[in-house]
Amino acid sequence: MFSNNPALYGLTVIIIGVGGCLGYFFLSNLFLDKVLFPASGPNAGRNINRANMIRPWLFLFPALFALVLYLAYPVFETLRLSLTDRDQGGAFVGLANYRQMMDEPKFWEAVQNNMLWLIVVPAISTAFGLLVAQLTDRIRWGNLAKSLIFMPMAISFVGASVIFKLIYDTRPEDQNQIGILNAIWLKLDGGIGSILMLQVLPSILLVGFVVIVASVAWSFVRGIIAKGEDKSVWLLPLRLLVAGGALWLIWVSISSLLGLWIGGLPYGEAQTWLTIPLWNNFFLMVVLIWIQTGFAMVILSAALRGIPEETVEAAIIDGANPFQIFFKIKVPQIMGTIVVVWTTITLTVLKVFDIVFAMTNGQWETQVLANYMYDKLFRANDWGIGSASAIVIMLLVTPILVWNVYNARKEMK
Amino acid sequence: MTSLSLKDVCKSYGEIEVLRDINLEIEQGELIVFVGPSGCGKSTLLRMIAGLEKITGGTLEIDDVVVNDVPPAQRGIAMVFQSYALYPHMTVYDNMAFALKLARKSKEEIDEAVKNAAETLQLTEYLDRLPKALSGGQRQRVAIGRSIVRDPKVFLFDEPLSNLDAALRVATRIEIAQLKESMPESTMVYVTHDQVEAMTLASRIVVLHGGNVEQFGAPLDLYERPANTFVAQFIGSPAMNLIEAKVTATGDTTSVKMADGGHADVPIASVDGDVGGTFKLGVRPEDLTVTESDDYLVSAHVDMVEALGETTVLYFRSQNGEPGLVAKLPGIHRIAKGTNIRLNSVPEKLHLFDGDGRSLLYR
Amino acid sequence: MASIAGKKSALTWAVHISVALLVLLWLFPTIGLFVSSFRTADQISSSGWWAALFPAEQNEVYRAADPDDNRVADGDMFVVKGNIFEGDPRDIRSWGVSSRNVSAYQPGDTAEMKDGESVTLQADGSYVWRGNDKQLSGRGQRIFITATVPPEFTLGNYTTILFSGSGQDNMAKAFFNTLTVTIPATIIPIVVAAFAAYALAWMEFPGRALLIAAVVGFLVVPLQLALIPLLRLHLGIGIGKGYLGVWLAHTAFGMPLAVYLLRNYMVGLPRDIIENAKVDGATDFQIFTRIILPLSFPALASFAIFQFLWTWNDLLVAKVFLIDATGSTTVMTNQIVELLGTRGGNWEILATAAFVSIAVPLAVFFAMQRYLVRGLLAGSVK
Predict the structure, then answer these.
(1) What is the pTM of this model?
(2) TM segments (chain A) (predicted)?
């Protein structure tokens, strides 16, 4: 009956919800202490102990109920749905959904793009976050600067999508470009400045990226060959996985490096940025990087502040220059926090939906898993494949989940 | 009248036993101090009395009522925590009134109790302040006031002075002693690791070590007649010297001989079976004197001298190499490091401990 | 560090400049949207928003009055006089009569055309168009001007979006819908989670460590998994799509973070205080309401901001659990996505709508940033 007045409805729900919660907690405690196990009479002591055994569960019940019903149950239900077919009345079909999904090129496109997102977004966000955190650490208006860079955190993915769509906007040739990216693009004419900006600089970045990836991969692979390393069984697949991923990344980088020099750039033509395959992924990633950098910065900034001042002062006396202090003294000390930031952003990336949905909706080869899944669920109405892709996301999250739980338990001991 | 009685009280966390068979009878009006090194279980014992830790064996009685399963609030106790545990979001007044409000006392009653306690502790002008606006000593007094307001049968203090600086600690210690004097009827149990606090405040001291009561007695009893080597070394500073000694003669007086040639006739009884046994001869640093005669206790090689003016502290080893011995001589003595001297003591001040470290006095 | 001897000031300057550049780079996108929301549709489509901040040169086309009605004989010629601006004057830089050369003349010049036809334009916009009978017929002569336009902003877009717009262009309903979703979905989980967090932090019971580990695990379970089973559940038990469903969903989805954040905070409160309250005779319920809750305010505030931002900015949960076919319960994020689809080129509408939707979170952000940062620091799993 309130449905026609949402505000009133909302208010009523707040009152009922909050009042109900408080009432539940108060009355159930009262019931426990006064009726079930009264703290008086001959069994007072025993009753109090019994009441204290039950009380934690009274406190926990509503939260546990919500967690189990809304998070635990769906995991298993989704798993079940992914093994059934809706059209056949929910009959068990084994891995048929998965097989069908694997046959779809769109799925592999989503997986490939997701991998790209998973590497690029956390890396760049963390790097920028660290850079800003370090730069603002000692300057007087550092807090203001941090606050402004942190601000996109408050903006919704949808809002950010609109903001960046304006940046990427394209107008016909004879009109003024109102998207800043095209406006800048049209100023470039293939002269020396453009070559520096658009070919030399990206080439340097790409080569640097290849070198970093190769060295990381090498440090993993070396363990297989070298003697005396920890050769436990479960590390081998991890190492091979890293090596494989690295090879793929190096291949992607080198091919785009070649494309950069061979293709020749279409100067003077306004570009529809979001329709250029491969590159459009990066234009979408920029949105998330723009948002997540602030997060990385806040956490890393606190970590930098936590470094004992004495270690930095000792390094200054030892003759380290600012770069050495940063890379050899500070970064190693906050490595743990960097890992935390990295994994947290990785989680966000895995679930990224709104940005792709709002900007391209997966067209022009920008599909990602979360949007692929939404597509299957609510547009194709295929619960089987939708659930299967949700399970794929869950599988990707699982290593981080296990790692987090492992760390949390270690910390509690 | 017995105010607090522990019978075979035990505490274990799973397999780990932290307190074993504690037996204590505490009379009304006493101030009992639990003292011992960290990890000895003294705080656990106090928290068991308070009801904050479950008792895993034995019985605990307050005013002759078994309270093992009674929740803290109904035991008639009040507790002052090491960190004061003031509620940071309540004023001094509310902090003191909180327990009474929970007990549904009338407004007038609460007001009177709080005002009286504040008067006693000179807190009246701070009643409207939040704890963060108070100094360390004032916070300490609020914590005490909070317990006074409840008018408990037993006051429990958990290392209440350890967060104060040295000067304030002495002042507050005296205040607590005066407070106790003004409330002769109330029983107090006080936990500390500081033997000075224990010696100055206690009517009786419980020395705890490794989950056992090593000795329970009046402060000077513990100093003069320690029950074992642990108590002997724990009470008194610097700690009592323990020198290995062979028994040469027994009887009402026991004669012992040390490896470095020193000897003593200690007026403590021993039995025939002790002859030839290896005992520990105990002598407090402050009981040692320098001697030239052949009748000496220790022949010492001085390792280090600390001249404090008021006293001179010698760190030495015996001639046969027993290290870590200390003598505290009154006044100024010009003894150079590296010299050899002889030390002696009056026989009445000596202690003897058997092979298990138990004092012969308590056999 | 500033006080250390022999420090190079060049480096300090480099730091200041690079921070300034980064901040500008980060602000630039938002400012673009903000500025655009105050421009008219014409302004937006004729120039980039960055040009709106400075006086702009703008090309405009006018037509002289219809010669058939307005021409006056002047000897053997005809003349049309008038003012191109009709009460809306411009600062004319230059002008022309042909689209091939729009700035051929200065104000006050006379443009000579074929066969004695001429146009004279004054700086105030008044013109004299002279020609023979044939020339001064049909449609009025086109006059191209290049004018300097001062920066000009309008609140019109906001009026449209918030009040007068119709259908999709009016965000007022979506705004209130979003508010209706957000507030209960922020407050209810706090209460529920606070009790659970207290139990997990300060009560002894078997399985506690396991539950805490489970909460940490739930923190990262992707929302995507919950969509179909829960939608089925909601449809099955009759909640259907609507506010109740979205409140329940948000409450549950926010629960792991809420419990985790609050437990971590509560466990850091001094044990002595809680034990003292026990000795003072407080029950667990009283300890919770009178000691823990007031002392946990910073953590509660942190979570409240998180949950507020997350529910306000959410699209997926609303799309799945709230918005039905009628669309009467649409939220702002959804409406903007729909606008992106249907009004993709109407930046005045899009920019304003987006800015309306991000204004509230931004206000919350700047007002309560302290708590947000604190929550972030406590909430990232160490």
Answers:
(1) 0.77
(2) 6-27, 57-76, 115-136, 148-168, 195-221, 233-262, 282-304, 334-359, 383-406
